[in-house]
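Recall from the previous chapter that SMILES is a line notation for molecules. Here it describes fe (ii) ion.
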Amino acid sequence: MVATRAGAASTSRARSPCSASGRAAIRSATSCPWRSASTSPAPPIPTPSTCATAARWDLAKTYVEIAEFNLQALSSHIYRHHYVAEPFAVSSRRQLAPSHPIHVLLRPHTQHTIAVNRAAFNLLKKPGGVFATLYAGELRETRNIMRRSYERWSVREQEIEADLAARGVADGPREYPWRDDARLWTPVLRRFVADYVALYYPSDAAVRADAELQAFVAELQADDGGRLRGLLPAGELGGRDVLVDLLAQFLFIAGPGHAAVHFPQTDHFTYVPAFPGAAYRPPPREGELVDAARIADTLPPLDVGVAQFQNNQMACYRFDRFGDYDRYELGRVAAARPLVARLHADLAAVEQEIERRNRARPRPYPYLLPRLVPNSINI
Ligand SMILES: [Fe+2]
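With both inputs in hand, we obtain:
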């Protein structure tokens, strides 16, 4: 789908705040006017065999990467992790007493999420800011990627196995490090959360009878609250299994899920020629010369490229490490100490297994190594 969007990108120019260099960004990834022209056939998707030269194929791939840059940052990263996590951070503080066991569990995994999201939200509205400067769309179009993500995905559809099945990648390709390493995390998180919930809720009835917990979950879903769609199988928190599934999925989103979409940006998006945030020339017409100069002219101008490098380099910051609860109340709960110790042991085993896999992989995949995964979304 991404290839189609980019390959068939609009050839219309859009004024952009980053046109100070004399070039205006092309809205290649975030808006597709050709889609509404239902009478026009979609342009063909370029392939190595349909591109007359290597340069033409390189340029086709560049447009795909621009689309990927925008979708990854706005949908996969910011919306599906930062803004799905935010209601948990807000409503756990509003509806659960600080000493409530679920508040205590969530506190490390919601640390600084509200602050970082507020900063991002302000930038998403700021003319001349990073989102207005680096990305392919104008601010309204860039925000629209997030809005459409909200409309298209429910929270339960983001659960790993549901997501893999929906994308048809549950079993193949054979080499898919994110999928394979994420599957190491899910049983570890579920066991930790299940054991923790069992400390405080002896039965399903106890879950149903906890008024604070019910208010928390209701606010996560409320139209005037978190507005998280499809959060629970029947829309209700009816028992312990549902609670465990919900919390385990949240811990994944806040920890390894976010780490896997955030930290690769520093490794990849800092190399602007491979991952430009926007195109500054429309895709070439049939027969139009494509050479190195044409490719360079399509890439962001130097000042924009420098800003893209700086922003993605700064993003490489880790506040803490997943399962490090020393600074939180959770680290002082005596009954939870054996559970936390086992979590640490389980994560050490995950670390070992990923290290073993990385030695055999064509290219190491470090992003789900537990030592590189923070507790929360704070950057
Ligand atoms: Fe992030």
